[in-house]
Amino acid sequence: MDGDDRVIHHHHDRSPGVEHGEDRADFLKYSAGFVFSVVLTIVSFVVASTTLLWPPGIPVGLVVLAFAQIGVHLVFFLHLGSGPDHTNNVIALTFGFFVVFLVITGSIWIMQNLNYNMLSLPH
């Protein structure tokens, strides 16, 4: 080198929202997320296999529990928050949900349209 004795600091790659030196906080966050995930999974199996909910309400209950599970994973494992450094992540997540919504609703619409327009075969 040309005699320059500057110290180069390497920044370790961290997830957004994870501060330097938060080892104990990380362990507690991951543990809480794991416990919430396991509880939500057990509750989903209980709801699906028992008569705790009114039978037509079971699919709605499972969808609510699925969204809760998604929320737990986003907050505790992917560290998605509402801070200014999370803006791009939130936009990408919103776009992903939009694309999934379009694919699912478009597929259902096409299948219903095909089912309606299909000729019935003689028996």
Summary tags:
123 residues, mainly alpha, 2 domains
Blueprint of the fold:
Blueprint: H1 23-49, H2 58-77, H3 87-117
Helix pairs in contact: 1-2
Walk me through this protein's architecture.
It contains three helices and no strands. With 123 residues, the chain is mainly alpha-helical. It has two domains: 61 residues; 40 residues. The longest helix has 31 residues. It is flat and about 70 Å long.
List the uncertain runs.
none
Oligomer: single chain
Q: What is the count of helical runs?
A: 3
End-to-end Cα distance, whole Å, is 88 Å
**What's the alpha carbon Rg, rounded to whole Å?**
24 Å
The overall number of domains is: 2
One letter per element, helices H and strands E, the order comes to HHH
Helix content: 55-70%
The helix/strand class is mainly alpha
Number of strands: 0
Largest sheet: none
Mean pLDDT: 82
Please summarize what this structure is.
By secondary structure, this protein is an all-alpha fold. The chain has three helices and no strands. It has two domains: 19-79; 84-123.
